[in-house]
User: Fold this.
Amino acid sequence: MKVVPRVLRVASVLLAYRLDELVDAAHLFRPLKLLRPFLARPRADVAQLPRGERIRLALTELGPIFVKAGQVLSTRRDLVPADIADELALLQDQVPPFPGAEARAIVERELKAPVAQLFARFDETPLASASIAQVHAAALPDGREVVVKVLRPGIDERIARDVGLLHSLGELAQRWHPNADKIRPLDVVAEVEKMLENELDLQREGASASLLRRNFQSGVDLYVPEVHWELTAARVLTLERVSGVSCDDIAAIDAAGVDRKALAAKGVRVFYEQVFRDNFFHADAHPGNIWVDVARSAEPRFIALDFGIMGSLPEADQYWLAQNFIALFERDYARIAQLHVDAGWMPNTVRMDELEAAVRTVCEPYFTRPLSQISLAELVVKLFQTARRFELTLQPQLILLQKTLLNIEGVGRMLDPEIDIWAVAHPVLKRILRERYSPRRTLREVRKRLPEWFHAAPQFPELIRDALRQTARGEQRQLADPAALRQRQELARRQQRAVSTGLLGGALLVSAALLWALATPEHGSWPPLAAAAAGLVAFAAGWPRR
Assistant:
């Protein structure tokens, strides 16, 4: 019931902006056609607006999560019509701003000093405005140009409301979806919630910018602006001001004489270096956050902005993912199947020959095309969809990486529609893995851990003696089997559903019997029949399927 008002609001906004075709196309909203007379009327002032602008305005009104979705779609011009993609691109930095006087007040409250004392100049007219914060130009007392990022007033409450909707939907999916243990909806919602909470802490964003700047310290391929920590707090972030053009401004890039093919290839290399070399990647890489330094036409480089959403992977997942990419590049389908099982993403009871055949069925049609026409992101998504048939357990920690892969491929194809992402990524990934798992690196890691091992060494004989004593007495604890644990959880969930629906059905049937006994001719027989029918439906819903 908590979801219903929010869903009604979404449908109402879509109708208000005359997006009826979207409401009709979404299965979730089709029953709401009956409620159209009670929802918001279509706005007369938007009737003449293009569909792309109507979609952008609707997403802006619905809130930050919907704006984020629009930003991702704006980079996928192979999936979204051009007129809609052009409008959605405005969501990257042209969301309606809040008053500059409010931004000044927030800066003074957070930094505990008057703006005139902190800056030589502070422009109240924002340079850019996004769904969560907006940016103002300023100058330091020593004359250096900076930008000040300020969180929107009340954004915490709006994010909390949107996350509450996601939690409600996740709880429904966890309770009723037949594959809830594989999809892990509550884990996915927790991952999204953590991502949004990180965006609301600008001090954390500053720390992320500092780390990314250190990882690309040379500044040859990627430049990250410097953080001014003395002018940074939880709701205010001050960065060095940089200049460049958005990476989707093809006309400006061409006018500057930048080699777009070289730039696109460099973007793919930078992404794989962030993920597999540094294990720290920019996870909001839409064109509004990725600029091009056109002043360096001979040696083009990217400029990164907005570090609110950064990603990293557990070391084990990073290794398995890299090996999967290598096997995919080399068309080694048997190894892809084996890696999915070894990584624990699938149960070891799956038939390897069937999984290999399914992977081959998905991949082979792609390899008949020219490599420049193969969408790596699309192929990865289809592989995950196929793997679900073999009881794939969704890995929430990979969600950001999949989103970023879509963004990077979209940016690369905007710069160079003929880019061969496979040819660029394959040698970069092999080089990174060769360096990461080389004997020299292994020896360095061993040397780093030697003091810890020497410190623990005196305890080993006692631990071994205790373990042998427990084994001799039959006290050795058995490790829980993850598959059996999931099976018990699923059984408990089904039993809970059977008990609750059984109680409801029994109550309705008793009510039907009482209504039948107490009914009078003027009331008719439909109330007890309706109660009996509802009771039978409740019994049917809770009856064990197998």
